[in-house]
Design brief:
The strands form 2 sheets. A 4-stranded antiparallel beta sheet has the order 1-2-3-4, sandwiched between helices. Strands 5-7-6 form a 3-stranded antiparallel beta sheet, with helices on one face. With 147 residues, the chain is an alpha+beta fold. The chain is built from 4 helices and 7 strands; from the N terminus they run E-H-H-E-E-E-H-E-H-E-E. Helices cover 35% and strands 30% of the residues.
């Protein structure tokens, strides 16, 4: 089930983010330790963003965060990758933002890049990482609906 997140979900969302980041990006230096990530979800992400969670058997297994036209966060528990949940989150994001979406992902995250490209996102810019906290080269993707 995918539903809007509430404050009680923040801790579980942080844990999904931590597991997912570690599994997907083992070579990328994290800018913040685990406790800082947990505080960020509790005090910034959930209260200030448009956050959604996927719940299975009472546990949060994925998250989506939108910030205006930005797809800010899309993370799945590693055990839920390849099971269609990312597709469902992206379909939801496109329904909520029918005029288009943009996002950034690390250049090193080849599975995410393939996923977004498969869903119609087009790379429009890349950086050397000097503008993100991880100092990791990234790519900006944009999705515009076909009209």
């Amino acid at each position: 089930m995918i539903r809007p997140a509430d404050p009680a979900d923040a801790a579980a969302m942080a844990e999904v983010w931590l597991r997912s980041f570690t599994a997907a990006l083992p070579g990328v230096r994290r800018a913040h330790d685990d406790d800082a990530v947990r505080r960020w979800f509790t005090h910034v992400v959930v209260p200030r963003g448009e956050s959604w969670v996927a719940v299975a058997d009472g546990a949060v297994v994925g998250l989506l965060v939108l910030d205006g036209q930005e797809l800010d966060q899309l993370y799945l528990d590693p055990s839920w990758r390849g099971r269609g949940l990312g597709n469902r989150f992206l379909d939801l994001a496109k329904r909520l933002r029918p005029d288009g979406l943009a996002l950034r992902t690390f250049q090193a995250n080849h599975p995410a890049r393939r996923f977004y490209e498969r869903h119609g996102f087009v790379a429009v810019d890349s950086t050397d990482g000097s503008r993100n906290e991880e100092r990791e080269p990234d790519i900006r993707y944009v999705w515009r609906p076909e009209r």
